[in-house]
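queue> holo job accepted (pyridoxal-5'-phosphate)
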Amino acid sequence: MSFKKSQKLYNKGLVNLVGAVNSPVRAFASVGGNPLFIKKASGSKIIDVDGNKYVDFVLSYGPMILGHTHKNVQKGVEKALKNGYSFGASTENEIKLAKLVCDAFPGMDKVRFVNSGTEAVLSGIRLARAYTGKDKIIKFSGCYHGHQDALLVAAGSGLATLSLPGSKGVPEGAVKNTLIANYNDLDSVKAHFDKHDDIAGIIIEPIAGNMGVVIPQDDFLTKIKELAHKNGALLIADEVMTGFRSKFGGAQELLNVEADITCLGKVIGGGFPVGAYGARNEIMEHVAPLGGMYQAGTLSGNPIAMAGGIATLKTLKKQDPYKKFNEIASVIEEALVDSAGKHGVEIVVNRFGSMINPFFTSKKQINNFEDAQTCDTNKFAVFFWEMIKNGVFLPPSQFEAWFLSSALTKKDLIKTVKAIDKAMEAVSKI
Ligand SMILES: *Cc1c(COP(=O)(O)O)cnc(C)c1O
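queue> job finished
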């Protein structure tokens, strides 16, 4: 397998791009080697510039849930393109996507579209503050909520991959209202409410995916919601990753808890830059032009991106691949566990719906960021490259979830299971 052309582009890219990437999660910092450059993708496969073909479990970090270049999405976008790309005025597509999204979330009467998950969350936080008149926000260690200043502490994802506690350039003032709690640890949330009376909200990934997959235990979400409401604060669900991924709608319904504010991104744009935040009418009425919370965007609700989102969600609703996702994930889990056992490698596998990943750790369970950080990232690096060599593209980090697409075939799965066994064998030799 040759990576010559990727290497060449990487060297070229270093001149005018930072690290030759436009998002640090795409760098191969923690697995070594140079990032792959992609030429094209179709269905469940992605092809790099050297012509190597992989089964894709990155899927643009989640959005490509139907697989790549799905014909319905192509058609929807091509049709929209012919009418112009951006107007700075409203279009019918915005109403259509808004209805699809609001219908899927019981707690969402109204939604506002933005251009990224980061924007969705920073607006959702502003809204919680506007509605409650309070300033402080509780976030959980290991949860990632985009790269806004206030939440870029103990933030999982790329920061965890690069072993960074937070970001330089974030002034102290920007995080002085951010309180950190531990995932699955109710007492750590209680302690903040005991100490502070100006907490506007708790923000959480209802299924965490940015420290690897971590699942809430023992009604954790219901309990933190009760705590929030008892103290006049809101529950903000960051479903940028999980929205339309665990079911049509969000993880909230599966877990039987309705958030006050929900933030979305990734899948709702189907590969185009779309984010959104939504809530009940009484909360959304605080957003301008109805209310005094200002939030705007020149390209927000972009007609091409809306068309991509509409086609993706409509197709997804029709396909209803969620049962299939569970079955595929269980096959992958079994392959990981069996192969690790066979080769004497210690792992924990966490999965929820179409998100799954192995943790290379001697721990028995991974329930929070501290647990996740016990992982041997060197083992993951060996595993990652062996998977690449056997034609499977994974996120280049121990702390990212693998994503499933509805385009995966039986053949892809057989290939993946075989690759897992080879990769585990390689890990057992280090
Ligand atoms: C990806 C992600 C974000 C940030 O979205 P961007 O589109 O990258 O800005 C926020 N929250 C969660 C849970 C995410 O997974």
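queue> The pocket of pyridoxal-5'-phosphate is lined by residues 116-118, 121, 144-146, 205, 209-210, 238, 240-241, 265, 275 (CB under 6 Å).
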